[in-house]
Amino acid sequence: MKKIAMFLVAVSFLTACQKDDVLPPPTDTEVSNPELTEVSGFYLLNEGSMGSNNATLDYYDYSKGVYTTNLYPTANPDVPMDLGDLGVDMAIYGNRLYTVINGSNKVEVMDAATARRIGQVEIPNCRYIKFHEGYAYVTSYAGPVEYGSGNNQVGYVAKVDTASLAVVDRCLVGYQPDGLEIVGGKIYVANSGGYMYPLTENTLSVIDIASFTEEERIPVAINMQYVIADDNNCLWISSRGDYYETPSRLYCYDIAQHAIVAQLEVPVSDICIDDNNLYIISSSWNNLTYSYDIAYAKVNVDSRTKVADNFIADGSDADIIMPYGIAVNPVTKDILITDVHNYITPGTVYCFDATGKKKWSARTGVIPAHITFTGK
Amino acid sequence: MLLTFGWVLAQSEVEGDSITNLNEVVVRATKPYAEVIPAQTLKGEQIESLNSHSVADAIRYFSGVQIKDYGGVGGIKTVDIRSMGTNHMGVFYDGIQLGNAQNGQIDLGKFSLDNIEEISLFNGQKSEIFQPARDFGSAGTIYLRTRRPQFDEGESTNVKAVFRTGSFGLVNPSILVEHQLSNSISLSANIEYINANGKYKFRYKKYLSDGSLAWDTTATRQNGDIESLRLEAGLFGRLNGGRWNLKAYFYDSEKGIPGAIVNNVWKTAQRQWDRNFFTQGSYMQRFGDKYELMVNAKYARDYMHYLNPDTTMMYIDNEFWQDEIYLSVANKYTILKDWDVNLSVDYQWNTLDATLHNFAYPTRNSLLVALATAYKWRGLKGQASLLGTFVNDRSTANISTGSVTRLTKSHEELTPALFLSYQPIDDVPFNLRAFYKRIFRMPTFNDLYYTDIGNVNLNPEYVTLYNIGAQYAANFNGLLRRVLIKADAYYNHVTDKIIAVPKGTGQYRWMMMNIGKVKIRGIDVNAQASFNLPCDIALDLNMNYTYQKAQDYSDPTDNDSYAGTYKGQIAYIPWHSGSTIVHGAWRDLELNYSFIYVGERYHNSANIPANYEQPWYTHDISGSYRFKFNKVRLTATVEVNNLFNQNYEVIQNYPMPGRNYKFILKFEL
């Protein structure tokens, strides 16, 4: 009996009670020296793990050299359930910050200066966002399902009035549309067909903005992801391949010539453009070798050739386990690369100068992915 | 009267067969059964008095066990013993393993307690050598034994009807009929229907660091409905020096899959249909006084249909069919009075068919051979076994010239186990014990062949188990009737753990890899006491405490102080957990109080604040009263679960129910 009593006492000491669930406060870390340029900082959107509701927003302040993680809950303490589940794209338009939260079926709209919530746009299975003359254009996988063999689902581009935050129109495109680009009054949409088996979708949709109708389908490659316009009236389009025999590739489409004018053997996981250079990282899975192929590349859009195999010059790419996102500071030309590690623990953002030497790094949220600069 | 609730008494049977069924005593009475390390057991009235809806709820009261519970009546509940992972747990239904070649997991939330008479949990393996080879093949085993017919003097028919209702819109009637067909053959038939809308309120709230409320939101859990029907029938026969039984089981259900609660998504639309059928038979016969034979056979067919009609996500409409054939022969030979040997040979055949594109249609042939021996010398008891596993998979691949079926996986392995117990002093019921076991699990069909996710290069996942422990059990005459205290310390090492990892950007393509390593150090303590108090009051106490340090050793390079996973506590394993049951009986009135505590955990082996999961603890109470109405015995029970209405989650973003009620009316004839 005594033993039991002692056991009870022991157990009650060892165990802990529920604490109040406190909103996680942002953490500030000084990671570098202040730099005063036109670019005041950048937001970094961490995707979070699917179903975990842990998309988070970080901010780097160039004027202080301070990296701040997870600022949304504190900026919006009255908003239940945080930012949401799976942050897949981000952009600033005017003085507002737009984050595309795929698993929460919404675009969250915030004040770009404070990250204070302004409202949200309900778009199921939303993917990527671009802006044009007061409207946001958002790709979505959630169009009508063609029930039957394959149950393929057509995607669409939603037209969102940025003043009212209402979806004012939809334009059906191909299967599972991802990245989009707006040039010369047209929207170019990369249809991925990512839900299909086998991966047969290979078209780029062209939407006329004035009539908001799809006017053309251009066959390019299967499983496309990004479309980026350069200053030569060309589109750079990436394909993820099929993870088996067909590898990830980069294509150049000349709008005037109406033709693919270059195909580069450069695999692409993320891509960004700065002046006349494309900066590319790749970390795609290969089902044949059962491994991740990690690669970096710099492509010149004028010569349409790969000009560098690696833009990290000091060997610190060895520290990067799984590169996932890339951005280039438009003023300082610093290169930012995100590392997602094992996809489930907090990642890292690395900053390299224009010559490829590491300047600083900071820990982020889970799956750091999308970077948007502020102030320029 | 006092002893009618032999409910803790049941646990006291340290020695001797804990199975009270008369038929079995006939067989086993010839020799004392040498159980080296006793099971944790819940039985009969004890199960009934616990506020449990399913087998999974009852198993929470065992030490060393964690349940993954997604909440609600229809939610998936799987068991993880000593942090080795749910796939290392073997679940046996009336002596034959429940298979799931597809994903290796048995949803114990699906198994009703309605006709379960005994639940036993063994670490390592069942402490018995006369058993099928399959029984040697898991790192931990749970045995579910359904009720077998027993008749009072002069009776040849039993009827039991139960009606349960309460929260979640539960309507749950069941009927059991038992009939004695002849002196040696009896029949049992059981039908149970469950319908529940599964709705319950849940609440999330967060505070600011100054303690003021940030937000507080309450919602109703949706799409947690279930409708199920279970039919079971069995024939039980006695022979001279033997026995046999035959049984058929059918389960049919449709349920909603409630899904994770995330920002802006408060309800999901996924549905699942399950249809499980199996028929199995067992025959046991003694020949002379040296040789015993046991033959088991089973055929099972399982159908599963998963539908995601929600067009905001990938539309999925998949169907799966599994078939299993199982045959087992066990032969026990008594060499000397205290020395037995056993040879068991099992053959098992599994297939999986699916409506997935480019599916591999795998077939697995498994041959298991177990050689085991048990020896007793004075206070020392020992069992040793060696299991040979021979597995071959064939599957279909589409190559450029068409589809071919070929051998895609082949594995052969010998794994040992050793169990010892020692009673140092003859008349003192104190035992020391130890065991060692090495075992593995084959990758499941999903691990290997699921289109685009499976990885056919996977190796088996290995576990090595070490355990030392001690037990004291004694019965007294007096206020204190019985005491049992046992403690075990263990070390488990899991290698080549199979883990899903994403393939790249987009997070919609995943891949299985053999990358995990886990080291588990733990302590289980159990204390029980029974009292005969004045005024006809009987009181039983049962307490469990588990300490586990389950560390992730997968990636030594992932060791930074910010968020490294190396040596972090693995997902969802609390350092501290425990339970308490207090059961009181006074004449025809019974009261039961139970408490479950699961300490703080992390949902990831990076043990950082962002991954923190709150401890949770629920208090459940129940009271029942029995009375007689002519020949009908009636029992009325009221249960209140989660009495203090705690908001909690077992799995991140899967809120659990608050306070809820159940009313049970039982008629017995």
How would you describe this structure to a colleague?
- The complex is a heterodimer of chains A (376) and B (669).
- Chain A has 376 residues and is mainly β.
- Chain A has two helices and 30 strands.
- In chain A, strands 1-4-3-2-30 form a five-stranded antiparallel sheet, with no helix packed on it. In chain A, strands 9, 10, 11, 12 and 13 form a five-stranded antiparallel sheet that branches. Chain A has a four-stranded antiparallel sheet with strand order 5-6-7-8, with no helix packed on it.
- The mean pLDDT of chain A is 92.
- Helices cover 3% and strands 59% of the residues of chain B.
- Chain B has four helices and 35 strands.
- Chain B has a 22-stranded antiparallel β-barrel. Chain B has a five-stranded mixed sheet with strand order 1-6-7-4-5.
- Chain B is globular.
- The interface between A and B is large, with 80 and 73 residues.
Quickly describe the structure.
Chain A is mainly beta.
Descriptive key words:
heterodimer, A: 376 residues, mainly beta, Methylamine Dehydrogenase, Chain H, five-stranded antiparallel beta sheet, B: 669 residues, Maltoporin, Chain A, 22-stranded antiparallel β-barrel, five-stranded mixed beta sheet, 35 strands, globular
Query: Could you tell me the number of beta strands of chain A?
Result: 30
| Overall mean confidence score, pLDDT of chain A | 92
Q: Total helix count of chain A?
A: 2
Radius of gyration of chain B: 25 Å
The beta-strand count of chain B equals 35
When the domains of chain B are counted, the total is 1
- The CATH superfamily of chain B is identified as TonB-dependent receptor, beta-barrel domain
Q: Report the oligomer.
A: heterodimer
> What is the correct CATH architecture of chain B?
Beta Barrel
Give the overall shape of chain A.
globular
The CATH class assignment of the domain at 32-271 in chain A is Mainly Beta
CATH topology of the domain at 32-271 in chain A: Methylamine Dehydrogenase, Chain H
Mean pLDDT of chain B: 89
CA gyration radius of chain A, whole angstroms: 22 Å
Major beta sheet summary of chain B? 22 strands, antiparallel, barrel
In CATH, the homologous superfamily of the domain at 32-271 in chain A goes by the name YVTN repeat-like/Quinoprotein amine dehydrogenase
Q: In which range does the helix fraction of chain B lie? A: under 10%
